[in-house]
Design brief:
Layout: E1 2-3, H1 6-17, H2 19-26, E2 30-36, E3 49-50, E4 54-56, E5 64-65, E6 68-69, E7 71-77, H3 78-85, E8 95-100, H4 107-113, E9 121-126, E10 132-134, E11 146-147, E12 149-155, H5 177-184, E13 196-199, E14 213-214, E15 217-218, E16 220-226, E17 240-245, H6 247-252, E18 259-263
Antiparallel strand pairs: 1-12, 2-12, 2-13, 3-7, 3-11, 4-10, 5-6, 7-8, 8-9, 13-16, 14-15, 16-17, 17-18
Helix pairs in contact: 1-2
């Protein structure tokens, strides 16, 4: 769920969930971006883009899994995003390059390489002052370079990313907090589905959580990549790829602990 106006977010939560639960749910809001192709007055945000060559520091090895190079899917320019994110971006990692196994690999290769393993997806930071365009080695696929505008939004979690202890609810009326959110916020739920987003909360529209929790609380969502027919990628039937990182790892700049998972219908 996303809102252009944080005040409107709080008002809607209170109206639909009641004062206490609404306040609790609104407190879970995170700042993020919808990544859209520039049109009209919109311009690309920094060096944010989908596809194209990677932006890596000299000497950085191209990531691979079992000898197979990954494909570059997106670059985020966190310097251009930092002002809106504020404390939600505890460090300034510069450029973030997002890699994944090519979704067009034959099924046999997917099974051999295990797309669910951590090595199938990588996030590599780079200093913008030193980064150079780096072409993918064969047989990795290079997607067309598409600059994107990062539109500032405030996001609420999908109902499946809400735990029972997060908000008060009537246990005689709802089987869990997810039931409350799904029932009362239903027509607002899933409005980032099918789109590319950064930070904030992912939209899963599934009964499978993306932002797992540990002692630090929910994992930090870095990037959501939807099926894109223009770019020519997809992850199964209406599939979406989500990159997340533990909160402590983000604060330490340890992007080696970032993970990704693909969900499809």
């Amino acid at each position: 769920m996303q809102f252009d106006d944080p005040a409107g977010l709080s008002r809607v939560c209170a109206e639909r969930l009641g004062e206490k639960a609404g306040r609790q749910f609104a407190a879970m809001a995170r700042r993020g971006f919808q990544l859209v192709r520039p049109a009209g007055p919109l311009q690309a945000t920094g060096q944010c883009r989908l596809g194209g060559p990677a932006l890596l520091e000299p000497g950085t090895s191209w990531p691979e899994q079992d000898g197979v190079p990954l494909s570059l899917h997106a670059v985020l320019d966190t310097d251009a995003l930092a002002a809106w994110l504020g404390d939600e971006l505890p460090i300034r990692p510069g450029l973030l390059n997002f890699f994944s196994l090519d979704p067009d690999l034959p099924y046999e290769e997917y099974r051999r390489l295990d797309i669910s393993s951590p090595g199938a997806h990588r996030v590599i930071p780079a200093d913008p002052a030193r980064a150079v365009e780096t072409r993918a080695p064969e047989p990795a696929r290079t997607y067309p370079a598409v600059p994107v505008h990062a539109a500032e939004v405030t996001m609420l979690p999908d109902c499946w990313d809400v735990e029972d202890e997060d908000v008060d609810f009537d246990r005689d009326q709802h089987w869990g907090a997810a039931s409350l959110i799904l029932h009362e916020m239903g027509d607002l739920d899933g409005n980032t589905a099918g789109s590319h987003c950064a930070f904030g909360w992912p939209d899963t529209s599934h009964t499978l959580k993306v932002s797992s929790r540990d002692a630090d609380g929910p994992a930090v969502h870095l990037l959501q990549l939807a099926e894109d027919t223009e770019l020519g990628w997809g992850w199964g039937d209406a599939g979406t790829l989500y990159y997340t990182i533990p909160a402590k790892a983000l604060a330490a700049g340890d992007f080696g602990r970032a993970v990704a998972q693909a969900l499809c219908c």
